[in-house]
Each structure stands twice: as structure tokens, then as C-alpha cells.
Amino acid sequence: MHLVTRAQWGAKPPKSPLKHIASTKGVKVHYEGAPVPADLAKPEKHSQCAGRVRSIQASHLANTKEKYSDIAYSYVVCPHGHVFEGRGLHKRQGANGNQQLNLNHYSVVAMVGDSGLTKPTNDQLHGIRDAIELLRDKGGAGAEIKGHRDGFATKCPGDPLQEWVKKGAPRPGTPGIEPPPPPPPGAKVSLSHVITAARTDPGAAQGHTTFPADVKRVEAALVAEGLLDPKFGDDGSFGSRTVDAYAAYQRRQGFTGANADGIPGKSTLTTLGSQHGFTVAA
Ligand SMILES: [Zn+2]
Ligand SMILES: [Zn+2]
């Protein structure tokens, strides 16, 4: 995780000592609830993020109604996924709405607004998750992940973050949450070509190729599976090493004996393609 300590972002010291807490039930997620520039998510704008955290702290220290002794949040996460230390571990935070709510959960705020940047970036979701895991590992946070609006009348943390929290705050790309990207169009391997190559190349002269374009895709997939030495991974020749590697892949798929002879079949080639971005043609 990209942790930015208080010293690194230039925090002011708290006005009064922060109350120590041993543990919480979990974490509540917040948004800024104010405009956040839509272009803050651009990579070059990260140079502004520490300044935004200093502004949040300054506004909290100036808030005479709430009488905050420090930035209210436990952690602040910018659109680039960096995690800025707010009150930090084992400190009672002040953002959840009342004394009891503040004791029950830590707070993590995303630099997401009610206008402009209204949806968290994927890097930011990873950053929030990083902060939650840090609070669990080192701060005694329990398993709960909730939105500020859970149990308190507020729009915070906005609909996109609240929906993410309701799903269990998964890291982007978690299987079952987002479908894997489809193979790029045109990435096709011909089953008959690779069968012919696997029957021809091992008995031919060293480095003989038959249908090298198809074979290279299969070799790249076998290298990615850790079954073929990268040295032989892109020669386009379905030689004996490639046959051995393919046989190992067949065994991995549960085939044995003559069904794991290293000559590609439709089932294993289709599975290999679905894992490594090609589709199988006849
Ligand atoms: Zn909030
Ligand atoms: Zn940033």
C-alpha cells in the first residue's frame, strides 16, 4: 500500500491528546460531501492530494461547532490510491456522527465529492481496502464495513461508495465481481493447425515450424502456465518440449494416459485459450 504518514503530508499536531481505543467493530466509509474536481483523478494531479488533506485538517481544526481536536477521519484515500494517515491506528476518530458511533467504528474517507469526481477510481477502492486491512491488522478493527449513512442520517458516502460497501467492499477485479476481459478480437488458434504442428514438428529438423502463428499463441500460454521454458516459448515450433509442456497441461486438466499425449484436443485448447486470451477455431 502507498501509506503517507502525517509527517509526510505535513499534519499539524492535534489540539488535544486523542483518545486511545483498543478495538472497534470495524470501519465506516465516507466521502467528502463537497465538490471534488473531476480531473483530480488524473495522474499528474496527485501532487495536489497532500494539500487537500491539509485543507481537510485545517477546516476540521477551525470547526468550532464540532470542536474537533484533529482531522476527524482515521485515514484519507486519494483517487490515486494513496492512503493518508489521519488520526491513525488506535485513536478514536470523530467523523461518524456521535460519541457512540465514533467509538464503534474507525473512519476512512475517500476524496470523492457530491459533484465533480463522484465515483471512486479503482486505485481508490484498492486504497480504501488497504486502509481497512491495515486497521484490521494493526488497529483492532473488526469485520464490519459500513457507510456513514448506516445508522446516521446523511447522504455520505454517496451512492457509488455505499453500493460498493454493501457488496462487501471488494477489491476491483475480484473474480465474480467483474467479468474477465474478453480476448482481443482476432486472437484465434486453429485446432487443426496446432494438431498438425504437434504431429509434424517433433520429428522434423530442429526448429521446424508448421503453423508458427497458431503455435506461438499456444507456447505463450504454456509459458504463462509455467510449463514451458521461456527460452523455447516463442520459436513457433511445436517440438518435443512443447509437446511435453502440453501433456503437462492436459494432466493438470485431469487427463491421463493416451488423453495426455501432448497433442492438443478441443477441450484443453479451449480452456487454455479462455485463460490466455484466444479463441479456438476448427
Ligand atoms: Zn461521512
Ligand atoms: Zn493522489
Automatic annotation (TrEMBL):
GO terms for biological process: peptidoglycan catabolic process. Residues 177-186 have a biased composition (Pro residues). InterPro entries: Amidase/PGRP_sf, Amidase_domain, Peptidoglycan-bd-like, PGBD-like_sf, PGBDSf, PGRP, PGRP_domain_met/bac. Residues 165-188 are annotated as: Disordered. GO terms for molecular function: N-acetylmuramoyl-L-alanine amidase activity; zinc ion binding. Residues 1-152 form the Peptidoglycan recognition protein family domain. Belongs to the N-acetylmuramoyl-L-alanine amidase 2 family. This is Peptidoglycan-binding domain-containing protein.
